[in-house]
Amino acid sequence: MKGEILKILSENRESVYSGEKLSEGLGVSRVSVWKHIKKLQQLGYRIESSAVGYQLVSSPDALYPWEFPTWEPNIHYYSEVDSTMTIAKELAGKGSPHFTVIIAEKQRSGRGRLSRTWYSDTGGLYFTIILRPLIPPSLMSRYGFAASLVLARTIQRHFDIDARVKWPNDILVNEKKLCGMLSEMEVSDDRVAFLNIGIGINVNNDPTHMEPNATSIRTLTGKTIPRKKVLTHFLEAFEKEISRPNLDHVLTEWKKYTITLGREVRIVTTQDTQYGKAVDIDNTGALVLELPDGTVKKVFYGDCFHQP
């Protein structure tokens, strides 16, 4: 109902819209309309009310489900959580449908790769998408590559930022980290029960006090960017991208946006640290690493650091 009210008021911003017309159009009482208006005002929407009706003056940088009408039934919004990945795992285990999205304003314990912390201050964009893929577990990494590919494209096209991908799926700008990504999946009877992809994007927050080698969209553009705009563009493009069978195209496209291949890198895993030249990725997304002695090794998981 809140979404419907906002839609009507947004389409009539230049004039006052009567409570009676809202009531009739939505099929609810004027008292119900008034209650929803009061709640929206409490949530930060500037709606002026008078004896003749209501007028939407401005909206907050809000990520409430009704702000995303295409996906509203599958969006879960929280003001603060430990981690959207934790909630996504619980919801996926209870049967939440494909393309369920969990959004949080803040995370107390945002998670990165290798048990690292993703600092999640107010102003950033933190969400996890639950997917139920129909491809074999061996090809599941393609969804993570698709997410990073789409995210780099989105930032380039809509914000004029030269965003590039570092293997496996961090987004960098001028070697500074703009976005991080984490994937978790559960397999049952040799089939993927669900794949959860968690994404953290520095939008209007300043991450440098905790991560000096990080940046944000606001820092790069000099403008405060509506997070709704970032998420809407990403969800639209990502949903379209993963609708293609087997995602055979993704790795080839991903290579056009990466700055890792052809460079000397350091790969850190839970077991060891390796140095070498990143020469390619295979059809599963594993990094093909040429070691100093000339031998070639595939790395399936780890944190990648570009060497000077």
Low-confidence blocks of residues: none
Under CATH, the homologous superfamily of the largest domain reads Bira Bifunctional Protein, Domain 2
CATH architectural label of the largest domain: 2-Layer Sandwich
- The string of secondary-structure elements, in order, is HHHEEEHEEHEEEEHHHEEEEE
Query: Which CATH first-tier class of the largest domain would you pick?
Result: Alpha Beta
Helix content: 25-40%
Provide key terms for this protein.
308 residues, Arc Repressor Mutant, subunit A, alpha+beta, elongated, seven-stranded mixed beta sheet, SH3 type barrels, five-stranded antiparallel beta sheet, BirA Bifunctional Protein, domain 2
How would you sum up this structure in a few lines?
The protein contains eight helices and 14 strands.
Question: What's the SSE blueprint?
Answer:
Elements: H1 2-11, H2 19-26, H3 30-42, E1 46-50, E2 53-58, E3 75-81, H4 84-93, E4 100-107, E5 125-131, H5 141-159, E6 164-166, E7 170-173, E8 176-188, E9 191-201, H6 217-221, H7 227-241, H8 250-255, E10 264-268, E11 273-281, E12 287-290, E13 296-299, E14 303-306
Parallel strand pairs: 3-4
Antiparallel strand pairs: 1-2, 4-5, 5-9, 6-7, 7-8, 8-9, 10-11, 10-14, 11-12, 12-13
Your description of this structure?
This protein has 308 residues and is an alpha+beta fold. It folds into 3 domains: 2-58, Winged helix-like DNA-binding domain superfamily/Winged helix DNA-binding domain (Arc Repressor Mutant, subunit A), CATH 1.10.10.10; 65-255, BirA Bifunctional Protein, domain 2, CATH 3.30.930.10; 264-306, Roll (SH3 type barrels). 28% of the residues lie in helices and 29% in strands. It has a 7-stranded mixed beta sheet with strand order 3-4-5-9-8-7-6, sandwiched between helices. Strands 13-12-11-10-14 form a 5-stranded antiparallel beta sheet, with no helix packed on it. It is elongated. The mean pLDDT is 92.
